[in-house]
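Q: Can someone sanity-check these two? First one:
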Amino acid sequence: MDSTGSTPTVSLRVNGAEHRLNIESRVTLLDALRETIGLTGTKKGCNQGACGACTVLVDGVRVNACLTLAMQCEGLEVVTIEGLASVGGLHPLQRAFIRHDGLQCGYCTPGQLCSAVGMIDECRQGMPSAVTGTVATNAHGTLCDLEIKERMSGNLCRCGAYGGITAAIAEVMAQEMAGVRAETAS
């Protein structure tokens, strides 16, 4: 409730749909997504921002939904695991995770996938990580396993599917780079 005793209203755009919610200002994005909107694909893991199970994209940037207030996302586009697939089918990363068995128990998979989508976009923008040798060599390029692991280090998998996750991300990055090279050559 606010100082007048009423519950504030927030408008959230989630996976392309508008949601008007009457929620307290201290409600996290995670709880708004799961408990109010009913999108349970985003998982509640540690609820402290340490495991990454709740990772979603807010205006294309990966965030821990358990540490983000729903009110902070008003006017921004929120994409959850339910929003990654398109009318044409699964997102390329979802297909790659399946091919490379990068999901095992599946609990962390939604956060891993959202994080990987955000990570690939960061790479396209030339954003460095702690292990980036030279930004110019990694901008719009492929990433080694060490680079992928560093960039995904905020997402934990207790089953140990890291090998499949890394292979899936590397495959999609290579496919995207092949497409970029083909477009540039035309």
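And here is the second, same format, sequence then tokens:
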Amino acid sequence: MPSQSRGRAWATPTRVVVLSFGAVIAMGTLLLLIPASTADGVSPGIVDALFTATSAVCVTGLVVRNTAASWSLLGKVIILVLIQIGGLGLMTFSTAHALVVGRRIGLRERLVIQEQTGQWRLAGVVSLIKSIILVTVGFELVGTLLLTLAFWLTRGPVGSSALWNGLFHSVSAFCNAGFDILGNSLMDYPSNALVNLTIGFLIIFGGLGFHVIIDLIAHRCKWSELSLHSKIVIKMTAALIVLGTLAVLVLEAGNQGTLGPLDLKGKILASWFQAVSPRT
């Protein structure tokens, strides 16, 4: 068998998806190793850079360095890009670029996209990618505007910090990444409805998945016309959030170390947020 044919046989869609994630993590690690990526100008070391890049691409939210204090603006931008790539998948970005420059999407690329997006059929995968991009941009743009307003009202219009904070946390929330650049997550906003609801709904819709969101849009939220998959996901999501909110509220309402000092509005918002964020 010619070497080119063997290479093509080895590069199955599943392997390409796995290797693409590995390549992005490796590139992110190298970029985070640059001294300019840290706040103190000292390279973080291979272990910290690798862990941070992996956590960002795999959208786990786990960190070994405080994201707000340890990384410079460049480092935070790198982390944000890694989160976005991890949340959407490298093939989504590659397809978007191909569509912009007018390049044809070949069969092998369509097979990889099918593997990455979990499509049962090969037909319509490019259209699905277009829909995913539009949905992502739409949710993250609205989230950025609302969070920018919230941070501007609470932290003041210091340069472009409100906009930057709004953008970062909108992308992080929709991709279910869990990263923050405020230093203490959202602990300063337990009673702020705009922050809690915006972040919460971004997490929820990001967690529902693109198939469910596109199904809802295509059928104009008509329950009877939704797929069985969408109905199960929506029912389970609603049940987990409602039951989780009630459980946290009942168990922690009188705890002075958690919800106790908050008013009723704060208790409800904080309970709801705590029920939303763990199930991502």
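A (reply): Looked at the second one. DSSP finds 13 helices and no strands in the chain. The chain has a mean pLDDT of 84.
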